[in-house]
Amino acid sequence: MPDAAVPVATGPLAGLRVLELGHFVAAPFCTRLLGDLGADVIKVEPPGAGDPVRQWGARHKGQSAWWSVHARNKRCVTLDLKKPKAREILLRLVAGSDALVENFRPGQLDRMGLAEAALRAAKPDLVIARISGYGQDGPQRDRAAFGVIGEAVGGLRHLTNHPPGTTDLPPVRVGISIGDSIAGIYAAFGIMAALWKRDAGRHGDGRGRGLDVALTESIFSLLEGALPEYGALGTVRQPTGGGIATAAPTNAYRARDGVWVLIAANSDPLFGKLAAAMGRPELADDPRFRGNQARCANVVALDADIGLWTAQHDGAALEALLEAADVPATRAYTIADCAADPQLRHRGMVREVVDAQLGPMLHPGIVPMLPGDPGAIRWAGPPVGAHNDEVFGALGLGAGEIAALREEGVC
């Protein structure tokens, strides 16, 4: 049976209040992570349609199924920040918040009358996390950007492709908004670092801080040794398809029934186990494959040998053979495989949650896992303005005042 919503905040961040002026993916993903761990997230959206992500993805009962997860654990309110009364209310919300997360273009909040000085006048020790395409300064700060642009400028899109000369197709997208999500993770990490510096007992200084997270830099920071290799050797790392340039064998191999099985046997002991499982133990002593450097130099021949073997077995049989041999391997999961996986289910990473609008829904679990204080999915993504009365009422606004503000288009 699906779990009912848990209204009371639990988790290590219970008591922390975060104000989200986010839209699309990056800032909302940051606050979802914080909300999962117990933070009280108040999400501010424009009246009417709200966050554009409400219209994204597959529809269920006329609504975005993604929104159920994207805005879970958030109290959603509406404010038209172009109106002075809305800005006044926002600053009252700021006064009661620990952190604010936004992902407008640099300078846009300033033009709305919500510059850092105004925010700090309302809450001097506020932590402000700004997420943007290129960062808050520099010659490209004003350029338009989404996650895919961050992935391109950060060097990832060049690498998500088959080896040069093997295809004329464009480099492929990772398949999710990874640039936005990585930036959101860094923002969440940065917020906690700033709060630690502000509040950590004798180490805390009581000061508010600002974070500057760029989509481009978030991806660029992931590129392993690509930059030092280029700086020292002039080497430009190239795409390698399903393989890894520095380790072999590590690739996806097609089974007899068309299933792709990933095999990572890139240490000498593991390669010996793989060779034995293939019925060809002599491969481990073949000079072409003795040691990782030799295997990398002869990876085309090695992958061909492994591919001939995998093509003789169905995917499930291959997985069983490789598991018995203690070789890291698995089929490439679809989302259906993920939803059914007993390990993910056991760990609470596939959860059935009751969405008040959509009914039973599958949600991903909470990461990181903190045993004993894990946080909770308290509710699924709510309707536009669902918490206006609750949140604005807590500021001292009466029902009549809120109704009048709604009539004026303020909220």
TrEMBL record:
Organism: Paracraurococcus ruber
Signal peptide residue numbers: none
Protein name per Swiss-Prot or TrEMBL: Carnitine dehydratase
Coiled coil: none
SUPFAM superfamilies, per the entry: CoA-transferase family III (CaiB/BaiF)
Family matches, as Gene3D superfamilies: Crotonobetainyl-coa:carnitine coa-transferase, domain 1 (3.40.50.10540), formyl-coa transferase, domain 3 (3.30.1540.10)
Any matching Pfam family: CoA_transf_3
Keywords: Transferase
